[in-house]
């Protein structure tokens, strides 16, 4: 049994994750979170909020998971959000074609359907299931389609990402931030992708949780005011050049920007904050790297893009976060389709004076002649190049109709004006986090086994504040005189908002092992000495050492241990083995 199977088996048995719809045989690409998994997921999300909502001051919003067709036409999902498929002509099994050539082409998802099929033919790729001939490669759109209202007149789609809701709400967010850049919006929620063959547990799901931030910045300067806080942080970077050499480099964030490895300070800042967040939730820093997208895999509109990748025992290096400079692509796309103005007026520090040539149509003459069309004709004249205004008769086209205007009705003069600022379309920096992948990574990176008293002890060494259970309260035996005091302690923890468990089932050793398996950092045991002197034992999950403390100090001690304010060895009197 490899590490993936060990973690998956523990997760199912202890109530972290269960395959969905098991009663009816299940369906690939869907998972339920059990009692412990749901708690763990919420804690991972809450720490994300601590970093990006509290730490960065970004506003959290919540948008519908169903979007109208126009949204995804503007975003490009209707035309370009697809995977290449091929089908076995014999057994009819369907495969992602780019996955069949991973061992031949390093970045197969950069190839077109025709190029993938050519590689398959040149290398005699056949059906992995039966060896049959595979069909030509075709594109399959990954969005789930639905209908809004009765009938099919108003098509809708389950969102494939949370980002579009933040782009669409840009005008309202801009007003919320008092019409000034930079600002950020975040959203944590469900997204949907009709994956072709999801066979990697929660790594590839059809319904999954995302935590995304859209940071709207002034495109004229990509320096970050808090860059000094992260510039000395050292990261393992797998840049384009490093990938050519096959060697990861370790360097400071500041050095990466100075050398032009990361495009600019703002992108590097969020790469650094992503690192800090992942380490804070329990990702092993020695199994974490940041890989830069190669030129042939990066979106055409992106200035730079990095993936946070983690090393998993069976699956190798897997992306769990993407951090991209998306330039102004998203806002301009929605501007083009919606005709709404998604620009920002940015004030100059000091107004500047500038001379310009102004075209002034004679509205007193144009108005009576052209009536309701006069304004549109005047605007068309003002937008014309001066070289087209020299003839005695000026021809101007409005709404497909051409009008002839006498040159005498148009004056040209030089004016001086005060310029207080300019309209800019913000660029967007997007850190996008796959919560389900992060959760599985935390489980695998926290999983340890060690021999204890002749048997193998499995333990999830979650960081404090991540474990789905803060403390377990255990009466030594299921006796009324021990259960009563244990219940009092348990209730005290709950009143303080701590996640506590109460367990009387089985021997105390078995209960310790159960709590080790689910990652409970501390167990409090009420025994017969408690009845004599009012003290209880506290057991540390990782070292299995025990100390003795007063019963009425239990809440304060556990809170101090979880926060790091207390050291375990100094929190109470040691208990001899």
Structural overview:
By secondary structure, the chain is an alpha+beta fold. 31% of the residues lie in helices and 31% in strands. The chain has 18 helices and 29 strands. The strands form eight sheets. A nine-stranded mixed β-sheet has the order 3-10-11-21-16-15-14-12-13, sandwiched between helices. Helix 2 (35-54) runs antiparallel to helix 10. The protein is elongated, with a radius of gyration of 31 Å. The protein starts with a helix and ends with a strand.
Helix content: 25-40%
Q: How many helices does DSSP assign?
A: 18
Strand order of the largest sheet: 3-10-11-21-16-15-14-12-13
**Which secondary-structure class do the elements indicate?**
alpha+beta
The span between the termini is 33 Å
Radius of gyration: 31 Å
What's the gist of this structure?
The chain is an alpha+beta fold and 577 residues long.
Essential attributes:
elongated, 6-stranded mixed beta sheet, alpha+beta, 9-stranded mixed beta sheet, single chain, 577 residues, 31% helix
Strand-helix topology:
Elements lengths: L2 H12 L2 E3 L11 E3 L1 H20 L4 E2 L5 E3 H7 L1 H4 L1 E6 L6 E3 L16 H10 L15 E4 L3 E3 L7 E4 L4 H6 L1 H7 L6 E10 L14 E11 L16 E5 L1 H6 L3 E4 H6 L6 H17 L6 E5 L11 E9 L3 E10 L3 H10 L5 E18 L1 H8 L3 H9 L10 E6 L2 E6 L3 E15 L2 E8 H12 E6 L2 E6 L10 E5 L4 H16 L4 E3 L5 H11 L3 E5 L1 H6 L1 E6 L5 E5 L3 H10 L9 E2 L3
Parallel strand pairs: 3-10, 12-14, 24-25, 24-26
Antiparallel strand pairs: 1-2, 4-9, 5-6, 5-7, 8-9, 10-11, 11-21, 12-13, 14-15, 15-16, 16-21, 17-20, 18-19, 22-23, 26-27, 27-28, 28-29
Helix pairs in contact: 2-10, 2-14, 3-11, 12-13
């Amino acid at each position: 049994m490899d590490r993936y199977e060990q973690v998956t088996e523990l997760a199912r048995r202890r109530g972290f994750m269960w395959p969905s719809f098991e009663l009816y045989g299940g369906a690939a690409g869907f998972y339920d979170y059990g009692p412990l998994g749901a708690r763990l997921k919420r804690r991972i999300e809450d720490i994300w909020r601590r970093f990006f909502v509290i730490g960065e001051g970004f506003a959290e919003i919540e948008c519908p998971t169903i979007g109208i067709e126009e949204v995804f036409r503007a975003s490009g999902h209707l035309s370009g959000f697809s995977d290449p498929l091929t089908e076995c002509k014999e057994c009819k099994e369907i495969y992602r074609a780019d996955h069949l050539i991973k061992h031949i082409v390093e970045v197969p998802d950069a190839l077109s359907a025709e190029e993938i099929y050519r590689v398959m033919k040149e290398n005699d790729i056949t059906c992995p299931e039966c060896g049959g001939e595979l069909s030509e490669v075709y594109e399959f759109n990954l969005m789930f389609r639905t209908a809004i209202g009765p009938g099919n007149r108003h098509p809708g789609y389950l969102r494939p990402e949370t980002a579009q809701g933040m782009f669409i709400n840009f005008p309202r967010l801009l007003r919320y931030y008092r019409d000034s850049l930079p600002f950020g919006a975040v959203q944590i929620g469900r997204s949907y992708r009709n994956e072709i063959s999801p066979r990697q547990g929660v790594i590839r799901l059809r319904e999954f949780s995302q935590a995304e931030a859209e940071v709207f910045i002034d495109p004229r300067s990509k320096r970050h005011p808090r860059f000094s806080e992260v510039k000395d942080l050292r990261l393992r970077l797998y840049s384009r050049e490093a990938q050519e050499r096959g060697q990861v480099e370790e360097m400071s964030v500041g050095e990466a920007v100075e050398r032009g490895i990361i495009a600019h300070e703002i992108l590097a800042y969020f790469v650094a904050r992503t690192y800090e967040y992942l380490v804070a939730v329990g990702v092993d820093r020695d199994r974490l790297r940041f890989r830069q997208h190669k030129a042939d895999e990066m979106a055409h509109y992106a200035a730079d893009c990095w993936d946070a990748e983690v090393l998993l025992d069976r699956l190798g290096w897997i992306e769990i976060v993407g951090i991209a400079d998306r330039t102004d692509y998203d806002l301009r796309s929605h501007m083009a389709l919606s005709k709404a103005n998604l620009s920002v007026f940015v004030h100059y520090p000091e107004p500047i004076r500038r001379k310009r040539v102004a075209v002034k149509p004679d509205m007193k003459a144009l108005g009576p002649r052209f009536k309701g069309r006069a304004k549109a004709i005047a605007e068309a004249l003002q937008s014309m190049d001066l070289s087209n205004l020299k003839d005695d008769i000026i021809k101007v086209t409005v709404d497909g109709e051409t009008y002839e205007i006498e040159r005498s009705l148009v004056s040209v003069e030089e004016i001086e004006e005060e310029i207080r600022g300019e309209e800019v379309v913000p660029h967007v920096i997007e850190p996008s986090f796959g919560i389900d992948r992060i959760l599985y990574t935390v489980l695998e990176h926290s999983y340890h086994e060690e021999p204890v008293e002749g048997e193998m002890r499995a333990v999830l060494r979650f960081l404090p504040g991540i474990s789905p259970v803060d403390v377990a309260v255990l009466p030594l035996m299921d006796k009324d005189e021990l259960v009563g005091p244990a219940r009092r302690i348990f209730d005290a923890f709950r009143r303080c908002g701590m996640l506590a468990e109460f367990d009387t089932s089985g021997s105390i050793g078995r209960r310790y092992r159960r709590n080790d398996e689910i990652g409970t950092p501390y167990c409090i045991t009420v025994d017969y000495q408690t009845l004599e002197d009012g003290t209880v034992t506290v057991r540390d999950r990782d070292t299995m050492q025990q100390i003795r403390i007063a019963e009425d100090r239990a809440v304060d001690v556990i809170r101090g241990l979880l926060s790091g304010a207390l050291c375990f060895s100094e929190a109470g009197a040691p208990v001899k083995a």
